[in-house]
Amino acid sequence: MSQKKEKQKSKKAYWNKPLNDDAPAKRKIQVVNYDADGNKLGDDGYPMTQVRKMLHNLLNIYFVGGLAIALFALFCCVFSYFQGQEYSYIELVATGGTQLNGWDFAFLLRIEALFCLFVAIISICINLVGFNWMYDDRAPYAYYALLAILGIASMAFFIAVNLFVGVSEPISAISLLFTLLNCICTFLVASEKPTLRKPKIAKTEVM
């Protein structure tokens, strides 16, 4: 009986053991390398020049911007249901409501939501494929194709909205501007890379 009581006490002591709140939380370790001149090195071992830094920041903007545009697409979709339209045939047909230059505003909001969702998906893909091309020496074809698709789609949507609706659509304009800027930076990075050399690592920082 004494052995059973001791086992029960040990089990209770184990389960009632307080958590170690002072234990350090695990975090992702980031290693940053520098050359002898103090220049930061990229993940591919090459120095981070001004154009490489600019392209790196632009690719990060594509990811953050893609998430923000996806949320805006959700807002447009929800907001379209508050435009005073009347639904019939089990909400398959909607008529009336707020008008904009002869167009149903709710319909325009839904079209905008679809376009924004498209831009968000392509932007996040550009972020992932662009970093693979920049640092992992992957083939550039998918990256170039995504930039071309986004640029052409943004230009076409911007022109179509201006011609048929008579208003300027901001998401397509911003997307087109960033795509053009990204293409310029990509061309400069691709032209500069053959002239770069991998220096020896002089200093390493763990963050």
Could you describe the 3D structure shown?
The protein is mainly alpha-helical. Helices cover 60% and strands 9% of the residues. It contains five helices and six strands; from the N terminus they run H-E-H-E-E-E-E-H-H-H-E. It has a two-stranded antiparallel sheet with strand order 1-6. Strand 4 and strand 5 form a beta hairpin. Helix 2 runs antiparallel to helix 3. The chain starts with a helix and ends with a strand.
- Number of helical segments with 4 or more residues: 5
- In the sheet with the most strands, the strands line up as 1-6
Shape: elongated
Helix/strand order: HEHEEEEHHHE
pLDDT < 50 stretches = none
Q: How many strand elements?
A: 6
* Rg: 27 Å
Please give a quick description of this structure.
The chain is mainly alpha-helical. Helices cover 60% and strands 9% of the residues. The protein has helices spanning 2-15, 50-79, 105-136, 141-165, 170-192, and strands at 31-34, 86-88, 93-95, 99-100, 103-104, 203-206.
Layout of helices and strands, plus pairs?
Layout: H1 2-15, E1 31-34, H2 50-79, E2 86-88, E3 93-95, E4 99-100, E5 103-104, H3 105-136, H4 141-165, H5 170-192, E6 203-206
Antiparallel strand pairs: 1-6, 2-3, 4-5
